[in-house]
Design goal:
Oligomer: single chain
Radius of gyration: 22 Å
Strand content: 35-45%
Shape: globular
Order of helices and strands: HEEEEHEEEEEHEEE
């Protein structure tokens, strides 16, 4: 008669350790986002909405920002740095912002290296060459997820009010997180920390 199979003594501790590591990674991801929302410098960008739906994550509002299009003198400084980049690959771009007289922030400089001072957003952009006239930068703040009832309401309110101010919290490394939506100086949505 065959002996009954014995449980391996390391299976339970290994499963507990793996679960603890996964929980720690998830907690770190949530806390890093919350830390940017709590402590990050704020910039205010103008936006226009589009409202699609993601089957896995739910309803969201797609936001586009005029500050995503880098042109003129801001672009001229960036294309001078771009000669050593490979074609066909997105490159990291750091865009420095300053507040205008209306309180909205505008790009004033762009670089392929992290700036030593100022408030800047880190994004990615396609390969640059000397012929680039307008560069589209993706800052990673183009989607705002919300529940199925709030997304259409928010979109309708944004469309009725025209342009909307988006308050962005910016971490020390240039990572941006959407913190709030404002119209005519009134906050209409605030992102919770957790």
């Amino acid at each position: 008669m065959a002996e009954p199979a014995r449980a391996k003594p390391f299976v339970v501790p290994a499963a507990v350790a793996a679960t603890a590591v996964l929980c720690a990674i998830l907690a770190w991801m949530i806390e890093s986002r919350a830390q940017i929302l709590r402590e990050g410098a704020e910039i205010v960008l103008m936006s226009e909405p589009i409202d699609p739906r993601d089957l896995l994550r739910g309803h969201y509002v797609v936001l586009t920002y005029p500050a995503q299009q880098i042109t003129g003198d801001v672009l001229a400084g960036l294309t001078a740095e771009a000669g050593m980049r490979e074609p066909g690959r997105d490159v990291p771009v750091y865009v420095t912002f300053e507040a205008g007289p209306d309180g909205h922030h505008r790009p004033v400089a762009a670089s392929l290296t992290k700036p030593d001072e100022g408030i800047f957003l880190r994004g990615t952009a396609p390969y640059l060459d000397g012929r680039t006239v307008t560069l589209f930068v993706d800052y990673g703040i183009g989607r705002f997820y919300t529940n199925e009832h709030r997304a259409p309401e928010l979109e309708a309110r944004m469309r009725a009010g025209g342009l909307t101010e988006i308050v962005i919290a910016v971490g020390a490394d240039g990572t941006g997180q959407i913190k709030a939506f404002r119209q005519a100086g009134e906050t209409i949505v605030t992102e919770p920390l957790y």
